[in-house]
């Protein structure tokens, strides 16, 4: 509270760019929830979360989606020596296991996961690697034949930061079907979306058996994300321009 008071005393305004659900048990902090009423405005990456934020006392909210940073997320010339056929980059969670299990019995594929918190989770058929950042991140994603764009149901996601970064890096993205993914990738082929584990398996087989389709998905994803409106610079401008 002293920080909020000091900012207001100096004539400042207080906003929050909220990329998670503060009621999700893995993120929940009582002090943050108590402070919701003290913000002037909260920009949430989840449209569905706005009514709950406002019911908790937040004076004003709006939707502001994820984005990418062109200095960090871009195509890279260096190729992974043993690229993944199917790659997923993200934090370990039990809700993600059915998607990974759907691909576990496909023969002859290199399946790889990069991210934290996978140690206690069973993922047969998948190689586990550490979190990747910087050029290693771009190289892993750009080299993979397919990169999965999974959502986090516990967080109420309809898109994630990965939704933007896959296309910005020029990778072949296969995305869990959602309204925000459809809007972001408006001209993306139907083969680039899936809505069930069974359909995910079908899509992976279809894409891996069709190099031209892989290339087409790379091109369409890169084109969709080429606009500066999808960058964090644009998000910062939206925040600074808020009235």
Helices and strands in order:
Elements: H1 2-9, E1 15-18, H2 30-35, E2 41-44, H3 50-55, E3 61-63, E4 86-89, H4 97-101, E5 111-114, E6 126-129, H5 134-143, E7 146-149, H6 161-169, E8 173-176, H7 179-184, E9 193-194, H8 197-208, H9 211-225, H10 232-240
Parallel strand pairs: 1-2, 2-3, 4-5, 4-7, 5-6, 7-8, 8-9
Helix pairs in contact: 6-9
Describe the structure.
The protein has 243 residues and is an alpha/beta fold. It has helices spanning 2-9, 30-35, 50-55, 97-101, 134-143, 161-169, 179-184, 197-208, 211-225, 232-240; strands spanning 15-18, 41-44, 61-63, 86-89, 111-114, 126-129, 146-149, 173-176, 193-194. Helix content is 35%, strand content 14%. Helix 6 (161-169) packs across helix 9. Helix 6 (161-169) links the parallel strand 7 (146-149) and strand 8 (173-176). The protein is globular, with a radius of gyration of 19 Å. The two termini are 23 Å apart.
Structure characteristics:
single chain; 243 residues; alpha/beta; 6-stranded parallel beta sheet; 3-stranded parallel beta sheet; 35% helix; globular
Tally the beta strands: 9
Oligomer: single chain
**What is the helix fraction of residues, given as a range?**
25-40%
Give the percentage of residues in beta strands.
5-15%
Low-confidence stretches: none
Tell me the overall shape: globular
Major sheet strand order:
6-5-4-7-8-9
Main β-sheet: number of strands, strand sense, barrel status? 6 strands, parallel
The helix/strand class is alpha/beta
The number of helices is 10
User: Gap between N and C termini, in Å?
Assistant: 23 Å
């Amino acid at each position: 509270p002293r920080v909020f008071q000091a900012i207001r005393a100096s004539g400042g305004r207080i906003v929050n760019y909220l990329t998670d659900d503060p009621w999700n048990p893995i993120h929940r902090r009582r002090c943050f929830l108590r402070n919701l009423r003290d913000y002037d405005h909260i920009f949430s990456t989840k449209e569905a979360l706005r009514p709950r934020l406002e019911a908790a006392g937040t004076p004003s909210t709006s939707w502001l989606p994820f984005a990418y940073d062109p200095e960090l997320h871009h195509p890279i010339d260096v190729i992974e020596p043993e690229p993944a056929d199917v790659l997923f980059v993200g934090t370990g969670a039990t809700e993600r296991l059915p998607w990974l299990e759907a691909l576990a019995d496909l023969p002859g594929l290199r399946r790889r996961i990069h991210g934290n918190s996978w140690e206690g989770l069973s993922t047969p058929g998948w190689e586990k690697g550490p979190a990747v950042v910087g050029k290693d991140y771009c190289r892993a994603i750009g080299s993979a034949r397919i990169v999965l764009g999974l959502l986090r149901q516990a967080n109420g996601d309809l898109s994630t930061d990965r939704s933007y970064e896959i296309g910005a890096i020029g990778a072949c993205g296969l995305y869990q079907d959602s309204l925000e993914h459809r809007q972001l990738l408006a001209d993306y082929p139907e083969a680039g979306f899936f809505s069930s584990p069974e359909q995910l398996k079908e899509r992976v087989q279809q894409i891996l058996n069709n190099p031209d389709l892989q290339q087409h998905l790379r091109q369409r994803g890169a084109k969709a994300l080429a606009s500066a409106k999808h960058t964090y610079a644009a998000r910062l401008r939206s925040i600074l321009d808020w009235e």
